[in-house]
Amino acid sequence: MSTDVKEFIDKPYESGFRTDVEADQFPPGLNEDVIRGISAKKEEPEWMLEFRLKAYRHWEEMEEPDWQNVDHQTPDFDAISYYSAPKNKPKKDSLDEVDPKILETYEKLGIPLDEQKMLQNVAVDAVFDSVSVVTTFQEKLKEAGVIFCSISEAIQDHPELVKEHIGTVVPYTDNFYATLNSAVFSDGSFVYVPEGVDCPMELSTYFRINAQHTGQFERTLIICEDDATVSYLEGCTAPQYDENQLHAAVVELVAKENSEIKYSTVQNWYPGDEDGKGGIYNFVTKRGMCQGDNSKISWTQVETGSAITWKYPSCVLKGDNSTGEFYSVALTNNHQQADTGTKMIHLGENTRSKIISKGISAGESQNSYRGQVKVTPRATNARNYSVCDSMLIGQECGAHTFPYIDVQNETAQVEHEASTSRIGEDQLFYLQQRGLDEEDAISMIIKGFCKEVFQELPMEFAVEAKKLLGIQLEGAVG
Amino acid sequence: MSAESQMNLQDRSESFVRALLDGTEDLEGPTRRHRLRSDALERLETLRVPGAKDEAWRFLRLRPMLDVEIGSTPTPSDDEVQQLVDAKAFDEADGRRLVFVNGAFSETFSSLEGFGDDVHAGRIAGPDEADLESIDGHLGSAADVFDEDYFAQINQAGFRDGGYVVVPPDTAVDGPVQLLNVVTGGDESFAVQPRALIVAGRGSKVSVVEDFVGADGSTYINNCLTEVCVEESATVDHVVVQGDSDRAYHMNRRAIDMDDGANYNSRTISYGATFSRFDVHSRGDGEEIDCTLDGLAILSDDQVSDTHSVMDHRQGHSGSHQLHKMIIDDESHAVFNGKIFVQQHAQKIDAYQLNRTLSLSRQAKVNTKPQLEIFADDVSCTHGATIGQLEPEQLFYLQARGLTEDQARELLIFGFAAEIVDTIPVASVRDRITETIQAQTRSLGA
């Protein structure tokens, strides 16, 4: 460690903060010293620390919003440890050491054995060497000029790119959890696609080294230069267990002229047990900026996990002729709560947006769609088409729709439609009469209900996502 | 929010209440209204005028209304009133017309002889006020959904008179009833607080037209509250026409209570006032109810109109229908928020809601939020919203058929409105509104 940095870390300690530089976890609690500590640990440049501190100071003035349609206890922000170095999880020798229940789920999802091992941190054999796979990918990307690394690495290696774009789409003042993230973000992904490049493969967090320990305050930044395209996958269908209850991530997308970013998410965090105890709070701010003319940002999400999902992947359609899309399946079961949707902010001329949202609620869960379509005075000839359908399974659950439509330009064409229904008895009867058992029939109806979204997912994801819905709904119907 | 602006808000809330309730101290006394008044005054202690931070009010600026200097209510000449009454009175309701002039019942213009012997109708604050047993248990009961509503409570605390129509069980009122609220006055601005109560007993049937009319140029605040109780298997047709003065502020609260098998059919037409706000709350606490809350708002210049409605399905096997249309021109601003609740165990609900906006000007603004909150699974609920302008193809088609561009435009705009207007059940009211709207559309979009 350079002496500068050393001094830097030492300085704030005067005010009483003590930490062992060698320790891999900070004590719980949040104050400016913790922020300085995080920044120093990551050997960040001064401007990054400034950004974090500004965010922290702003956050201190903020109150947690309460307009969302979910019921939860505000996390105790002083009980969270804001920095922990990636730890080496104990290696397991074989899958026999893994909880058979988890293996059963993997089996149903059709996750290959090698991947199962990777997910459970079982030592993998030479045939499936994850490191070598990753290296091959990295080389291929390098050839194309695509930068794909962790955001910490990017801050070190490409500071000018990060500095120019971070906080431009989701400013540090944006909202309570985004501000908190800006202050304390641990790690996340960074993607830069240079001008004219079609990224040669689908990028996935899954194949990024050390991606599995990015922690609870993830920060992702994707920049697509003129005429470039990229498709990014986040998460995976395999159930994710995590001891951190609060996850407050920020994702920023910047699409320049004629570029296209496709961002797909499958979220299957631990939803808590059947009585609603435990489970992850997934409070995420995701926003894409269609900065250049003719740019396009497309969000696809399959949200099945988490005790509470609270997020609105949005598009700011600034460039003329830019396009925003949002495809979502949100499934809640047992005591899960979801308040999710999107915002389409039309700023440029001839901007178009499309929203397809499918909500399925079962058990005693609450599922809300909340969205905004805003057409500003300058956005001549804006078009929006929104559909949000809800399906209820059982008598104890709820489905809610809160679509805000704000139009300030007469040339706008905005259409919104929504419906709420359940699986029709006649549909079930018809399928059963054709020889399907009830479970398969339900699964088929649900797949049909979500088809428009699934077809937007990359193929492997789509296959797994369909199975995932079936598993999540097991026992909910009947 | 800084302490100072909070202070201002509190001060403003209190001074507005004081201004609207000024001179109502004589309402203290052993009357039904006294009880409502004291409850309301108590609630007003803690209620504040809603502001931009309140979800249901965030698109509106109430400041201009709160800043209206409220003077004493004028007593207009009979000639002045006659003109306005003549414009709105319709033949079918002769003998069943209650006219209120600046909030006070008018013996001269009302005619009550057309009600059958068993129908109770008249003024709430008449000399026989203490004996009005028919309204006991009804006045103020449906309005409890507005217990937290600042403006409704001001009405509860300060209404000086109002109309009631109580139809006993198994009775059909022969023809439509008109509740005509006329407001007119001199140069000073003032406030009136109309109140109405409609009770349809078990198996009865009544049709009510509630008219609000004001003389253009008069500045006033019209803070109305209407309660409708539709008892078992009764049917109420309700038409509300807001044609207030171009400088008026129209605040309209309506609470509807529905029992098993009740049928409530309403059309709300709004074209007057510089600022209007409707809060309609329909509580369907019975099975097999059927509720229609259709509406039409036509806005031009810098008019603002906001409709917030709640359809609360508390029991199953019911249906509701809401088609709300808005035509906006110039720099006008339309707001719509329709909520449909289906409470737990209220199965077999068929709810339909559609909000359509026709925008004729680039400066016009619309905020809409059709909202569903569903807690039961065996339901079919749909809602939708569209915002658009006149289709060039349609204009071209009509012009190709020989219409001028203006005629084509008028026809299309009127056609958009007609979907609501054509369903008004009282023929002469339908004709009158058709004329009014045609006159309006002639100037719209030009």
Helix tally of chain B? 8
SS class of chain A: alpha/beta
| Count of all domains of chain B | 2
Q: How are strands sequenced across the largest beta sheet of chain A? A: 3-5-8-10-13-16-18-20
Reported for the largest beta sheet of chain B, the result is: 10 strands, mixed
Instruction: Please report the distance between the alpha carbons of the first and last residues of chain B.
Output: 43 Å
* Uncertain runs of chain B: none
Name the strands of the widest sheet of chain B in spatial order: 2-1-5-8-10-12-14-16-18-20
Global geometry of chain B: globular
Q: Which structural class is indicated by helix and strand composition of chain B?
A: alpha/beta
In terms of DSSP E residues, the strand content of chain A is: 25-35%
Oligomeric form: heterodimer
* Count of runs of 4 or more consecutive helical residues of chain A: 12
Q: Residue share in helices of chain B? A: 10-25%
**Structurally, how many domains make up the residues of chain A?**
1
Calculate Rg of chain A over CA atoms: 23 Å
Describe the protein in words.
The complex is a heterodimer of chains A (478) and B (446). With 478 residues, chain A is of the alpha/beta class. Chain A has one domain. Chain A contains 12 helices and 20 strands. In chain A, the strands form 2 sheets. In chain A, strands 3-5-8-10-13-16-18-20 form an 8-stranded parallel beta sheet, with helices on one face. A 6-stranded parallel β-barrel of chain A has the order 9-11-14-17-15-12. The radius of gyration of chain A is 23 Å and the shape is globular. Mean pLDDT of chain A is 82; it is low at 1-23, 123-132 and 207-214. Chain B is an alpha/beta fold. Chain B has 2 domains: 3-285, no CATH class; 390-446, no CATH class. In chain B, the strands form 2 sheets. Chain B has a 10-stranded mixed beta sheet with strand order 2-1-5-8-10-12-14-16-18-20, with helices on one face. In chain B, strands 3, 4, 6, 7, 9, 11, 13, 15, 17 and 19 form a 10-stranded mixed beta sheet that branches. In chain B, α2 runs antiparallel to α5. The longest helix of chain B is centred in the first third of the chain and has 19 residues, at 3-21. The mean pLDDT of chain B is 92. At the A-B interface, β18, β19 and β20 of A face β19 and β20 of B. β20 of chain A pairs antiparallel with β20 (379-388) of chain B.
